[in-house]
Structures are given as structure tokens and as C-alpha cells.
Write the C-alpha cells for this entry.
Amino acid sequence: MQKRALGTMLRWPECCGPALARLTEGDFDGDVCPGVYRALDKLHQAGAPIDRVSLRRELGEDYSLALEEIEAQALPEASDLEWYIDALRDYSRLAEIQAASARLWACDTIEAASPIVDEINAQMVQQRTARTWTGAELAQSFLARLDETPEYLPWGIRELDEGLHVKAGNLVILGGYPSSGKTLLALQCARVQAAAGKRVGFYSLETDAATLQDRMMSAMAQVPLSYIQQRVLADRHLEALSQAAIRLSRLPLEVVEASGMTVRDIRATALARRHEIVYVDYLQLIRAEGKDRYTQVTNISLGLHELAQGSGICVVALAQLARPEKTKSQKNVAPTMQSFKESGQIEQDADVGLLLWPEDMDDNRSNRTLKVAKQKEGEKLKLTLDFDGAVQTFREHKNTKAEQYQNAVAAGRQYAKAREAVQTQLGDMEGVPF
């Protein structure tokens, strides 16, 4: 396989540049192939012609027979080289994983094993190539993708399903004040995504699994959480809980008690469990190195961003917001992306930033405002969620008659302003000869 790739580069010099960009000397072994790769790379970097004569001059007469054998194994079509490069890289990665596994076997402590496990995980999620696209390729690929329906994650809330464009490899930050409902909303969305067939891991660094079970069963069965906690359950409640338990058992949803975990621990577990979506509750509780809290939280944010980007896993990290200083004239102060506690890196790393807070800051039973404050691939939006704490559920807000009237009045005013602006423009065009 190695000789076929090298022979094809020799026979088809126009393929040499792209192939050398994807391969390294470490992808070859033996006494001959690494030297031939180095010679090809040197000639290519120097802009020298790549043929049998220049290669033999670079390598010396000792390589004559080897070069004849390599050239004889060249592929008949240059287009087949891509497959061989992929296969060669896979074999190379497998060899490195096997070598790392041998070193792992010899470890005596978890501390010694951890960096080797990281090395193996990095090899498993390593990208095949950093491909360069020409303008023609970009245009062709775009037109081909127009026939495809983009796959974005479902959330179970109509406005989010329509307006939130989250896909594999994204980092979503869900920020809220303490007791604002972050965990409730995260559990609700995680169940929706698991029901859609996604493998979801919910990493809880604050709440034990039993408490999360109670909250999920309350929501799924629509049985008040207090009834479950106090075991005040009628037959109808037990029946509803039994049916909910059956539905929950069928979901590809796992709860991980993650207290004390690092980002590295979460990454290793997520890869081992093949999680496609990872929820982290919550970001500031992840263990991290750093001389001060700012550095620690910054490293956590960077680590989660690298986890999402490098593995293709969608990461939804919950985060605490710093409470605003209220004044007499500002009873309810809405949070912003600058409200994330302890590090501005969180705001920078997020592909999507969600903010959740009570409509009435002094009443945790009030409805919630959910704002998409940052979205790299879509627009910002703001919506109201009806909060039913008794059964741990957020529902889409239904406007009251008063709210419907207010919305209609606001829409009428916007229409009037737009009409006035158009009339003003038309007035400015008087005298124009058309």
C-alpha cells in the first residue's frame, strides 16, 4: 500500500502536492518508503521536477531497484490515490494506537495512564485531512447541498426548532441564575433529542442520579414532583409513572454522575460511550488547573470548545450567571452574554449562547424568558416559556387576550411606521423622470 501511493505520486507528479500535504513521514515504515517520501517532499518544496531521474539523483544509486519496484506498483488512475491515502493514514493511526496501548498496559497508576488515554482518544477522533477547496469546488458542493435538508438538533419547543441551528461539533452555553430552571430545561431538551435517536450523555456535577430520575419521571408522567418525593401516589399516578418508566428505558439517554471530573474525563467517557450530545451541568463545577479562578474557568471553556470541535460531539454546557446589581428603578435586569461568571472566554467560545431568567426576579414561580443571545449560524431570538414547576415542565407560552391585543397594537404601529417611511422616500423622488 505504501509503495502504491509513492509510485502513483511518481507517475502522476500533479498529485504529489495534495498527497504530500495529507501524509507525513510517520505514515511510512521500513527501510525504503520513509526515505522516498522525504525525497519527494524535498523535491516538491524546491519546485524541482519529480521523475525517476531527479528522485534517483536525490536518493542515490542504492535506491535504484527499490524505485523500479515502487514505480511498477503505481496505480493506473490518479483518482484512486485518495482511497489509498485514507487507508494509509488509518493504518498509521492504528499502529500508533497499538503502540500507545502497549505503554498503557505497563502503567502502574491512573496519573501515568491519563496522558496515554488522551493520546489514544486524540488518534480516534483525528481528522482525516485539512482539505483545500477551490472556488469551483466550493460552488459545486454548495449547489449539491441545496438538495439536502440540513440536520439541526430538535429541542421540543417550536420557536427553537425553527430558529436554533445547532449541529454536531457545536458548543452551546445555557446560562442562568441559580434556580432559574437550567437543569429542568436541559433535561427536557435532552429527552427530546434522545427520542429523535441521538445518543445523549447528561453529565451532572451537582445533582445525584436519584434526584434527576425523580425530576425526569415527574415531567414524563406529569405527576407532581412533591408527590414522588413524599410517596403520596394514587393508582393513577403509579400507572402514569410505570408508562413513563417504559418510555424512559427505551431512550438512548445516560446520566453520568460526574462530580470531580475534568474536561479530559468527560471527553474520555463520551468517546467510550459513543455520546453524540453531551450535557454538562454545570460548567463552573468542572475540575481544572489554574492559579486562580479566572484561569480555571477559561481553561474549562477552552477544553469544552476543543471537545466539541475535535470530536464532532455537540456539547451543551450549563453555566451560572452573575446576578446583576438591582436599583430601585430597575427591578428586573435582563442578563447578557457578559453576565457569565468568572471568565469572558465562555462568551467567546460559544457557537450558541442561551440565557434563561424569571420574568419576575423576585418570584421563581413566574414564567421564564429564554433568549438566544448569540448564534453564529442564525438570528437572535427571544421567547417566553410557561413554567410549571410542580411537574418540572416548560411549555410554549400561549398569549392571553390582553397580550394578543398588545401584540396587534404593536404590529399596527410597526406597519404605520413602515408605510410612513415608504411615503417619505416616494416624496423625495418627486421630479425624477420615470
Q: What stands out?
A: The chain has a mean pLDDT of 83. The first helix runs from residue 2 to 11.
